[in-house]
Amino acid sequence: MAAKEKLEAVLNVALRVPSIMLLDVLYRWDVSSFFQQIQRSSLNNNPLFQYKYLALNMHYVGYILSVVLLTLPRQYLVQLYLYFLTALLLYAGHQISRDYVRSELESAYEGPMYLEPLSMNRFTTALIGQLVVCTLCSCVMKTKQIWLFSAHMLPLLARLCLVPLETIVIINKFAMIFTGLEVLYFLGSNLLVPYNLAKSAYRELVQVVEVYGLLALGMSLWNQLVVPVLFMVFWLVLFALQIYSYFSTRDQPASRERLLFLFLTSIAECCSTPYSLLGLVFTVSFVALGVLTLCKFYLQGYRAFMNDPAMNRGMTEGVTLLILAVQTGLIELQVVHRAFLLSIILFIVVASILQSMLEIADPIVLALGASRDKFWERFLFMSYLWLRNSEKSQ
Fold first, then answer.
1. Is pTM beyond 0.85 here?
2. Nearest-10 crossing angle of helices 74-107, 117-141
3. From CA 119, how far away is CA 172, in angstroms rounded?
4. Which of 269-301 are b and which e, b meaning 16 or more Cβ less than 10 Å from the residue's Cβ?
């Protein structure tokens, strides 16, 4: 049961990260400048430019959809991802069928397949691919009616029956239309599901607000969405992608000084929006929490977890970073200036972590006189002096 709960917690975070990434992308995308560039270019007569206001409205619709995906209950979110995976599998089946028909037209061989090894190989490969797609679709949708996903096997069946190639092209188009009609029927049968879900969610929100108030509602959403962990994972994904994009475009290994500059610039690139800045804040908070927890474990052992006060939770460092970033206008700066300012802010955060470590170590060092272990007493005292010297150097 514990493993199942952990898996559900991981899914609850992992499935919501793409919605925050979509919000981040929408915030970075300037629709007006995008269409101005199209107007200045040779694509002035592009149909995309003619629907400028539609694209502007779709930009805001994207925000709404991202928020909806972010706040969906976990079971509905899992179902939505499964439907999306099924759509991708159906598209893969369409691609397999189209490539097979194209290769058969290029070969222009209409005889029995067992007489032509290349034709037999193409047929076998396409058949195995279609069987895998149909099996995966039936497993994802949890249905035994595998024929619902096997429309793209009709061209293979027609080729097996020695149907002319021109007719196979028509059969392939029919299979594509049939699959599209299935998708439209599924969407039409579930058309009222978003409305009913929004209606029930609104009714529950009204009941919670009337009974407990807005603060309780906010705390409930905060706990259900696991906001700190969610934003931390989102920022770590951004940071990993930034590091990967840098090293994938560089052939020579970077020097030590270059690595430090790369580290700062990568962090600066990953805090250019309010969402990524919040991700950095929560990441710093968790890093500070980990450092302070290790400090307490180093000083007290397992007793530190038995008597754990409410202070020194790492939020002080995160709030410090957020306040300094807002006051200095960190998001609005260029990347180089942002990296330089981040080096100063992170220096202040490190000083705050050292101060918190001293607050943890002070009562323990004062109680060393009652300890019978002289070696451990000297060792802790030397560690305490090192912390003091580090704070003074800061």
1. no
2. 170
3. 18
4. bbbbbebbbbbbbbbbbbbbbebbbebbeebee
Q: What is the DSSP string of 300-330?
A: HTTHHHHS--SS--SHHHHHHHHHHHHHHTG
Asked whether residue 84 falls in the same domain as residue 108, the answer is yes
Same domain, 14 and 52: yes
Residue of 125, 106, 123, 118 lying closest to 162 (CA atoms): 123
**pLDDT at residue 82 tops 80:** yes
The residue range of the domain holding 261 is 229-393
Q: At 128, list the tokens.
A: 């195995």
| Cα gap 360→142, rounded to integer Å | 54
Q: At how many degrees (to 10) do helices 227-248 and 256-269 cross?
A: 130
Mean pLDDT throughout 315-329?
Answer: 89
CA distances for 115 relative to 124, 153, 163, angstroms = 14, 21, 16
Question: Residue 37's pLDDT is what?
Answer: 62
111-133 pLDDT, tens per residue?
787 788 888 898 899 999 999 99
Q: By 3-state DSSP, what share of the chain in percent is helix, strand and coil, each rounded to 5?
A: 85, 0, 15
Residues 201 and 135 in one domain: no
Give yes or no: residues 269 and 388 share one domain.
Answer: yes
Nearest to 60 by CA among 92, 31, 82, 98: 31
